[in-house]
């Protein structure tokens, strides 16, 4: 598979990383993407082939150098004229020759926060197809409410959920206007709470499931399965079963799993989490997490990278949103 066969996405977008990441970060991103795309984890053969092809293009220093040069060449006026990018005729039609007045370098596409929100299908579509969320609810950004568990209120859980919602509202919602936030997905029925998800964010063709955990303040080491500090250890909530279930229900969406780690202090930099050597090795993973459990600031960075690098971060998929809203508590 060549770079052209990746479609409108670059190899970096397929792997959900910025083009300027270092080689180690790129390798970790490839492993995460390969785990998500593997058919045994709810992915598809085509998605797995795309991830493998992207890695072939940037997996070695020499291959990455050649690929980056090809991207730079494609972004010049001559390259845009040759590929039909940014021309008067648009993609696949009209003239492919740039005008003399357009020979200066043009800026890239605006970030998602500056793009108008698109709806698929459009809000004006009548009648609404089966399974597609109605226009009024599609335009809403927040859906669902936290649910209390058990006979007695779980104050720790309620505080965790409130802090996750504040973090999403402050740092994710302003950057991704097309993101739709859901609280309280019940995927396994009344007596299978292990498949319930506290929070989810749908943005274009990406869906992030978010769990949370609270630990004492301190410095922790992540080994791929547990967070350890001194003689104590804590395991994050399992996201894999819910990720696999939703990936099968929404084959057009890439599902990711994330865990926010917090302390009793409302501090986005705490706790400190370090990766043990080999923690990113697939053999060390006990779950399908897209990124290692992280404190607030690092979790926001991972979420924005995952959600913002999809193929349509400015689009609301009303069919996918409808399926998710139907499974709220």
UniProtKB/TrEMBL annotation:
Cross-referenced PROSITE patterns: DNAJ_2
One Pfam family hit: DnaJ
UniProt domain J: residue ranges: 10-71
Superkingdom of origin organism: Bacteria
UniProt biased composition (Low complexity): 74-85, 96-106
Biased composition (Gly residues): 86-95
InterPro entries, per the entry: DnaJ_C4 (IPR052763), DnaJ_domain (IPR001623), J_dom_sf (IPR036869)
SUPFAM superfamilies linked to this entry: Chaperone J-domain
Region annotation (Disordered) ranges: 74-120
Protein name: Molecular chaperone DnaJ
Lineage: Bacteria, Bacillati, Actinomycetota, Actinomycetes, Micrococcales
């Amino acid at each position: 598979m060549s770079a052209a066969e990746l479609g409108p996405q670059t190899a970096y977008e397929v792997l959900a990383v910025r083009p300027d990441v270092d080689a180690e970060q790129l390798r970790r991103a490839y492993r995460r993407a390969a785990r998500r795309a593997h058919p045994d984890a709810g992915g598809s053969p085509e998605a797995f082939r795309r991830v493998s092809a992207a890695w072939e293009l940037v997996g070695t220093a020499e291959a990455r150098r050649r690929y980056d040069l090809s991207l730079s060449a494609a972004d010049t006026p001559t390259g845009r004229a040759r590929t039909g990018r940014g021309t008067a005729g648009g993609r696949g039609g009209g003239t492919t020759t740039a005008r003399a007045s357009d020979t200066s370098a043009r800026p890239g596409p605006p970030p998602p926060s500056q793009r108008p929100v698109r709806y698929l299908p459009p809000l004006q579509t009548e009648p609404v197809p089966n399974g597609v969320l109605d226009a009024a609810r599609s335009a809403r950004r927040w859906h669902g409410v936290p649910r209390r568990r058990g006979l007695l209120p779980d104050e720790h859980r309620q505080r965790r959920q409130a802090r996750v919602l504040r973090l999403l509202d402050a740092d994710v919602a302003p950057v991704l206007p097309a993101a739709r936030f859901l609280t309280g997905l019940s995927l396994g029925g009344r007596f299978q709470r292990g498949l319930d998800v506290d929070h989810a964010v749908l943005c274009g063709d990406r869906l992030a499931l978010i769990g949370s955990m609270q630990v004492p303040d301190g410095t922790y080491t992540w080994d791929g399965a547990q967070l350890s500090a001194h003689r104590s250890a804590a395991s994050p909530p399992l996201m894999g079963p819910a990720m696999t279930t939703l990936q099968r229900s929404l084959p057009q969406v890439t599902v990711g799993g994330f865990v926010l780690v917090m302390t009793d202090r409302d501090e986005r930099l705490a706790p400190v989490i370090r990766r043990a050597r080999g923690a990113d090795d697939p053999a060390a993973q006990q779950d399908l997490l897209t990124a290692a459990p992280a404190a607030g600031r690092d979790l926001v960075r991972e979420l924005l990278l995952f959600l913002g690098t999809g193929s349509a971060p400015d689009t609301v998929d009303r069919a996918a949103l409808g399926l998710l809203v139907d499974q709220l508590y």
